[in-house]
Amino acid sequence: MFGIDVPIFAFSHCRDVVVEVSKAGGMGVLGMARMSPERLRRELAWIDSHIEGKPYGIDVLMPTTYQEAGDLKFDPDRLFPKEHLDFVRGLLDDAGVPPLPSADADAIVRELLSELSFTPAESARMLEIAMEHPIKLIVNALGSPPKALVDAAHAKGIKVAALAGRPKHALRHKENGCDFVIAVGTEAGGHTGSVTSMVLWPRIVDAVAPMPVLGAGGVGRGRQMAAALALGCEGVWCGSIWLKTIQSEVIPEIKARMFAADSDDAVLTRSVTGKPCRTLRCAFTDAYEKPGAPEPLPAPLQNILWWSEGRVRVERVRAPDFLTYPVGQIVGDMTQQSTVKDVVYEMMDELVEAQQRLSAMFE
Amino acid sequence: MFGIDVPIFAFSHCRDVVVEVSKAGGMGVLGMARMSPERLRRELAWIDSHIEGKPYGIDVLMPTTYQEAGDLKFDPDRLFPKEHLDFVRGLLDDAGVPPLPSADADAIVRELLSELSFTPAESARMLEIAMEHPIKLIVNALGSPPKALVDAAHAKGIKVAALAGRPKHALRHKENGCDFVIAVGTEAGGHTGSVTSMVLWPRIVDAVAPMPVLGAGGVGRGRQMAAALALGCEGVWCGSIWLKTIQSEVIPEIKARMFAADSDDAVLTRSVTGKPCRTLRCAFTDAYEKPGAPEPLPAPLQNILWWSEGRVRVERVRAPDFLTYPVGQIVGDMTQQSTVKDVVYEMMDELVEAQQRLSAMFE
């Protein structure tokens, strides 16, 4: 479908990762959530001038999902029940994380909010910009892409795919004209369902056959890639593994926390976005697990609450206990920094070993 | 290690399943929790006379874990906080599940309790009885088997294994002299950890290498077995899949609920035993998820609360909404009854297909 050498699709917010994976024979896919049109233009131009003609794609949140956030105006005291604001503020105050300087606070928060709350028109504009570049793939991260967008992409020779955590979602993507689906097991970083890759992938493969399926969730090494192929997938979709690379966007303090983490430190929590999202455990996610904590607000409010009140305060002083990032259970295998190229080559080496071991067992 | 034809280990409380799996070339393992010494003797004698000399094993809860229950005397009003008793009783009363006839109630509950609360001496006696039979394997379901037991088993040529949900538990089993470990992903039925098979199996394989590992959790078909081998396991340990067979101990009403269930109806809940246990979702597990429900009691109290107050009342009238059974996420693939033999043969057929598909991708 893309003329790539190895069926590794790399989701990353980092243009360097996208370029390196595509140059290593896989397919980089740029996550463009929370990016302004100007920044998107810059990032894609940079990719085009470095990727040496190799194919790449973009990952978007489609218009329909933006609408709910688009209608929100930022006014913390009106948007958030007092109990929730007090809970987050109290948590950070008690931990000695300083409040934002009042002059900066409003500006920082407004900028964040403007990135979070695209209107449908703005996000359509983002897609237009992306389609002016030689992208080969558009992936929808939440829900099914609208038919009109699928048709527009296909008219330009661009393939369209979408993520699915249940067979019925995968079937809807197929009906809407997607070219393939990405089956996401619960062990993945970010928003996930509750069914594991081992159980989910073959169910989705069977549900949409003969449409190709990529396995996502729990894939960071060659043996897991071999398992994906054995389970009927045509390739893999990886996100977390790139966070450990020197190219990744993750700050050193968060990387250090990831390298020290075990698999069950990647917790599924509603505290960060309001929807179940697998994230590196931290003082913030722990606080929401304790008796007496408020139930997280529905999406997108919890996300805005955390980004506006929490994350800016925390990242400004890099308060270690509160630093977090979406990551999957493979974080337990991530113990040291590496390059994107080495990750791809090690995966391929171990994939070949795994396949040879399996063949030998059958002889 | 056992001279079996196919590396499928079948955990079952049902002697027929044990015999059929071993006769089909795998290895049946009888779960003997909640069995009196007399019944164990009868079951093993029955197995010996039907299994045609094929190897089989037993799965036990070792003495150390019995102690806590052994000290409990049954007195619901003393054992259980009033809030908890009222919650369970109220739930069943509201749903119209009749209370037990008072003449029977005490006797039924006492019998249940006597099965749940072995003393260490009694459980050692159980193991002695088992070792008088030609068993080839003892599996410890909870914790590491004591060194003395491992030595006693080895002296009789019996292998010993144990279940592990984390690499450090697997390492402890190795130190205690186990011959292999069973790595249990969160998608398994019954007590499980939080890490999925895709992530956990290769981590445990690497942690205890070159000791063999069986993959458990999410295995009900050949592609999942191929994935286990690709991930570095030497075979698989399956429990849930046998529940759908005509040989299984599960009553028809529960089977019907399983056939209608989706993968995410196998919920991880503390409401049944006090520890995280993956179980078919029912009105009882749902009730504990609602705001205002009590926190489940610690093990083994929650288990006794449910078995004594709940399960007997529910199963006596087969109240459909409350019927449940431990089962893994593969329940979503279980849609109709089958025989044990057909399950084994279908798994092997699909395993071969998966391996051939993988080989073809490499040519």
Automatic annotation (TrEMBL), chains A, B:
State the InterPro entries in the record.
Aldolase_TIM, NMO
A single Pfam family it belongs to is: NMO
* Gene Ontology MF term list: nitronate monooxygenase activity
What keyword terms does UniProt attach to this protein?
Answer: Flavoprotein, FMN, Monooxygenase, Oxidoreductase
Q: What is the superkingdom listed in this entry's lineage?
A: Bacteria
Secreted found in the keyword field: no
What name appears for this protein in its UniProt entry? Answer: Nitronate monooxygenase
Which organism is this protein's natural source?
A: Vineibacter terrae
